[in-house]
């Protein structure tokens, strides 16, 4: 039996639709199983400043369908310092919090892993990021909603692209991962996607332009994964220079991709992994992320979850190529 009595919960890094559903699930499953729940505000910042309060089931009423995170979130600089983490640990001890559930992406779970190792503390991660870049889980909380948001935006952009017979480069988020770009391109019927996973030695723009836009198609949409140097602007400028006959426009979707009500799929993922986090604590698991693979809840060591090489299904590139002729 685990000796854990009180569980802390926080959200960290970029917010993602479904984080509230995860907060609700951890809180309710925790209380159902006899634990006390304490909510930490503003991610690791709140651990350092002691911005912590007890949560009851009422605190999470009516939030399953809300976007963002009621706990607020932050990318904490303080937590990257030894002093900051020590202060965080001291606050956890003084608040009687024996285990911490961290809902966040790669950076947040890396922080959880280091903290767990440094203080021999029980940290459980939930995959909360729109990027879908955590290893060992088929999907992350927020990814499905964001993909649907992108598809809705692209459907609208297509109306104007077709009316004006233009090429549109639509830039989407994903940090270093192309899951959002590739899959939203397939789902919106875009003509191409430019993604980091396909960038080695290949000029993706040249490949696409050489393939030729079908004569009967006078407009097209290319989804571009965000990138500091080679985002949508870069490719639009290249087309303007290399193929001056085309009328080119850029649309950077930006943070609207992170907002909005979570999809049913994200709510279910958040609910099952939230319940899985409490189950993990009861089982005495430590320093794992709760994910889902083939519809089964799985426990992935944090050190594995944060790997940067989550497999990307290259068949999806072929799917898009064949269907965009
Ligand atoms: O990790 C989520 C994410 O939305 C990335 O896709 C994006 O690169 C980044 O966060 C943006 O971060 P911020 O909101 O701090 O600008």
TrEMBL record:
GO terms under biological process: canonical glycolysis; fructose 1,6-bisphosphate metabolic process; fructose 6-phosphate metabolic process
Subcellular location(s) of the protein: Cytoplasm
GO function terms (MF aspect): 6-phosphofructokinase activity; AMP binding; ATP binding; fructose-6-phosphate binding; identical protein binding; metal ion binding; monosaccharide binding
UniProt entry tagged with the keyword Transferase: yes
Pathway: Carbohydrate degradation; glycolysis; D-glyceraldehyde 3-phosphate and glycerone phosphate from D-glucose: step 3/4
One Pfam family in the UniProt entry: PFK
Role noted for this protein: Catalyzes the phosphorylation of D-fructose 6-phosphate to fructose 1,6-bisphosphate by ATP, the first committing step of glycolysis.
Protein name per the record: ATP-dependent 6-phosphofructokinase
Protein species of origin: Prevotella jejuni
Gene it is expressed from: pfkA
């Amino acid at each position: 039996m685990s000796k854990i009595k009180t569980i802390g919960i926080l959200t960290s890094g970029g917010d993602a639709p479904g984080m509230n559903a995860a907060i609700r699930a951890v809180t309710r499953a925790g209380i159902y199983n006899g634990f006390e729940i304490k909510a930490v505000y503003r991610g690791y910042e709140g651990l350092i400043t002691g911005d912590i309060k007890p949560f009851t089931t009422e605190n999470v009423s009516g939030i399953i369908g809300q976007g963002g995170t009621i706990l607020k979130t932050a990318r904490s600089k303080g937590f990257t310092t030894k002093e900051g983490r020590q202060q965080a640990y001291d606050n956890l001890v003084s608040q009687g919090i024996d285990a911490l559930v961290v809902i966040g992406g790669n950076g947040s779970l890396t922080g959880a892993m280091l903290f767990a190792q440094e203080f021999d503390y029980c940290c459980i991660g939930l995959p909360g990021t729109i990027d879908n870049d955590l290893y060992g889980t088929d999907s992350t909380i927020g990814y499905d909603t964001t993909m649907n948001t992108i598809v809705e935006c692209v459907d609208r952009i297509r109306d104007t692209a077709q009316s004006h017979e233009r090429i549109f480069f639509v830039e989407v988020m994903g940090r270093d991962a192309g899951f959002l770009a590739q899959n939203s391109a397939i789902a919106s019927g875009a003509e191409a996607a430019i993604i980091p996973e396909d960038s080695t030695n290949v000029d993706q723009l040249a490949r696409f332009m050489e393939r030729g836009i079908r004569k009967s198609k006078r407009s097209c949409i290319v989804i571009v994964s965000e990138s500091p140097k080679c985002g949508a602007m870069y490719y639009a400028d290249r087309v303007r220079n290399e193929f001056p006959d085309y009328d080119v426009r850029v649309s950077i979707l930006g943070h609207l991709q992170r907002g909005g009500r979570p999809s049913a799929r994200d709510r279910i993922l958040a609910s099952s992994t939230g319940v899985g986090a409490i189950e993990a604590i009861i089982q005495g698991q430590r320093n794992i992320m709760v994910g889902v693979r083939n519809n089964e809840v799985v426990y992935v060591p944090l050190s594995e979850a944060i790997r940067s090489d989550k497999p990307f299904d290259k068949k999806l590139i072929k799917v898009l190529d064949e269907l965009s002729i």
